[in-house]
Amino acid sequence: MPLPTGWRGHVEDVVVDESMRGRGIARLLLEPLRELATERELRTLDLTSRPSRESTLRLYEAVGFVGRDTNVLRFTPQLSNGSASH
């Protein structure tokens, strides 16, 4: 996504079916994304994960992602039909 400070990327979800976990599939997905971010000269490529997902966080760190000292805050407006937006 373009921002005033440069192009930045965001990985929305990395999901591997439970029956396929532990086979290196997530790494095979993340490494090309990292390479693409470098090729396209993104300033950053972000992804998020819950702190309780310790093995997932170790994988992200192993492929080059670095934890940030930040909090994520979210406001979810109510739509006119009464449901929350996504």
Can you describe this structure?
By secondary structure, this protein is an alpha+beta fold. Helices cover 28% and strands 12% of the residues. It has two helices and three strands, in the order ββαβα. It has a three-stranded mixed beta sheet with strand order 1-2-3, with no helix packed on it. The radius of gyration is 16 Å and the shape is globular. The mean pLDDT is 91.
In short:
With 86 residues, the chain is of the alpha+beta class. It has helices at residues 25-39, 54-62; strands at 2-3, 6-10, 44-46.
Q: Return the string of H and E elements.
A: EEHEH
Describe the biggest sheet? 3 strands, mixed
Distance between the termini: 18 Å
Record field, number of beta strands: 3
- Round the mean pLDDT to the nearest integer and report it: 91
**Strand neighbour order, sheet with most strands:** 1-2-3
Shape: globular
Uncertain ranges:
none
State which percent range the strand residues make up: 5-15%
What distinguishing features does this structure have?
2 helices; 28% helix; 86 residues; 3 strands; three-stranded mixed sheet; single chain; alpha+beta
